[in-house]
């Protein structure tokens, strides 16, 4: 079936509808996390596995940057890398995520090594990197549009974790403070780009598919956490095993 060409505003509405249906704020693991229904070990497992995604964001953005021939476009996109890597050692989003894993009592060397990751976490993150390397620049940029929906989940996450876990502090969650301004800025730019350059029905469908793919990347990571650490609780060999509750 041929998909008709739609106007930029209708394309935006379709993209927002994809997020409303598929974004991972709908996942039951997030309801447990935000609602205070996880124990310390389960929160540790989430933070450790999420670090793999966080550390690879600059790798993903560097792969996209390398494909941009327009210097003006590169100047805009490279800010994403600086946001996560920082202007100097110890700055940026990756460092702030490590402050969170430190605060949760995780060994930093273990977190950074990736030895204790769930296999599905590793595969999902690598799939995302391969996607932005192999697909068109338009699709690669469109895949970042999950940032359209992140401010709401960040607000829910911070409020819920602070209200429900005595082992989590506002300082430990400092990573999310910056994302509340960075994510909307980045999403607005990416949205304007795809609305301008998705000019054929095929390109528009590729943009929609890219966003669906990225939603699946995020969703699959939570599937793995739920199966390993909630129900049925089948932790793969070599993956992180929380210490038994006292």
Give your account of this protein's structure:
The protein is an all-alpha fold and 246 residues long. It has a single domain (13-229), classed as Heme Oxygenase, Chain A (Up-down Bundle), CATH 1.20.910. It is built from eleven helices and no strands. It has helices spanning 8-22, 28-34, 40-65, 71-85, 92-103, 108-113, 119-134, 137-142, 150-164, 174-197, 201-229. Helix 3 runs antiparallel to helix 5 (92-103). The longest helix is centred in the C-terminal third of the chain and has 29 residues, at 201-229. The termini are far apart. The relative contact order is 0.19.
Brief characterization of the structure:
With about 250 residues, this protein is an all-alpha fold.
Which labels suit this protein?
single chain; 246 residues; mainly alpha; Heme Oxygenase, Chain A
State the low-pLDDT regions, or none.
Answer: none
- CATH topology grouping: Heme Oxygenase, Chain A
CATH architecture type = Up-down Bundle
Number of spatially distinct domains? 1
Mean pLDDT: 95
- How many strands, which pairing sense, and closed or not: the largest β-sheet? none
Give the helix proportion (percent range). Answer: 55-70%
> End-to-end span in angstroms?
58 Å
Q: What's the total helix number?
A: 11
N-to-C SSE string, H for helix and E for strand: HHHHHHHHHHH
- Can you identify the CATH class? Mainly Alpha
Radius of gyration: 18 Å
Tertiary shape: globular
Assess the beta-strand content as a share of residues. under 5%
CATH superfamily caption? Heme oxygenase-like
Counting DSSP E segments of at least 2 residues, the number of strands comes to 0
What structural class do helix, strand and pairing data support? mainly alpha
């Amino acid at each position: 079936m041929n998909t008709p060409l739609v106007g930029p505003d209708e394309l935006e509405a379709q993209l927002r509808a994809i997020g409303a249906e598929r974004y991972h704020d709908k996942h039951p693991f997030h309801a447990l996390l935000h609602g205070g229904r996880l124990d310390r070990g389960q929160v540790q497992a989430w933070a450790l596995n999420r670090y793999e995604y966080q550390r690879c964001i600059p790798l993903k953005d560097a792969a996209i940057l390398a494909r941009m021939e327009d210097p003006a476009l590169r100047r805009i996109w490279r800010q994403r890398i600086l946001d996560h890597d920082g202007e100097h050692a110890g700055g940026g989003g990756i460092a702030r995520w490590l402050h969170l894993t430190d605060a949760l009592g995780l060994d930093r060397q273990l977190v950074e090594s990736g030895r204790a990751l769930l296999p599905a976490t590793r595969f999902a993150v690598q799939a995302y990197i391969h996607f932005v390397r192999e697909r068109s620049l338009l699709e690669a940029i469109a895949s970042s549009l999950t940032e359209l929906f992140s401010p709401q989940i960040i607000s829910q996450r911070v409020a819920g974790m602070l209200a429900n876990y005595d082992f989590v502090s506002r300082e430990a969650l400092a990573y999310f403070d910056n994302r509340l301004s960075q994510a909307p800025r980045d999403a607005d730019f990416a949205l304007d780009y795809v609305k301008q350059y998705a000019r054929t029905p095929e390109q528009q469908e590729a943009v929609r598919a890219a966003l669906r793919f990225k939603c699946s990347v995020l969703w699959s990571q939570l599937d793995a956490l739920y199966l390993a650490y909630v129900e049925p609780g089948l932790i793969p060999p070599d993956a992180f095993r929380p210490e038994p509750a006292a």
